[in-house]
UniProtKB/TrEMBL annotation:
Organism: Saccharopolyspora oryzae
Protein name in the entry: Uncharacterized protein
Length: 104
């Protein structure tokens, strides 16, 4: 994927290897039984971060999500803060698209 990560002025190119979850530095939460996780890798195959997005149904309807991302320690804190907004927008768009496409 090519993504502008956390307010960066240039896009970064990487792939997320969803087949490799070994050693992801984000703990699994047993209260969120559904997850999509994997290592983000640069073109040369080096690990540059990871995701462990976790989901659960709510008894009252709807769902809850935890969307942690592991970034390299050298990343400035402001980029992590900005990336939170990116995830909020991205997942909000996906949820709205799903709701809009659901049979009424």
């Amino acid at each position: 994927m090519i993504e502008v990560t956390g307010g960066a002025t240039m896009g970064s190119r990487f792939v997320i290897d969803y087949a490799d979850t070994t050693g992801i530095p984000v703990s699994r939460n047993s209260h969120f039984p559904v997850e999509t996780s994997g290592w983000a890798r640069a073109d040369d195959g080096n690990r540059i971060g990871a995701v462990r997005h976790q989901f659960r149904d709510n008894a009252q309807g709807g769902f809850s999500a935890m969307l942690p991302v592991a970034f390299p320690a050298t990343l400035p804190p402001w980029m992590i803060t900005e990336h939170r907004w990116h995830l909020a927008c991205e997942f909000s768009n996906w949820v709205c698209a799903f709701v809009d496409s659901a049979p009424q």
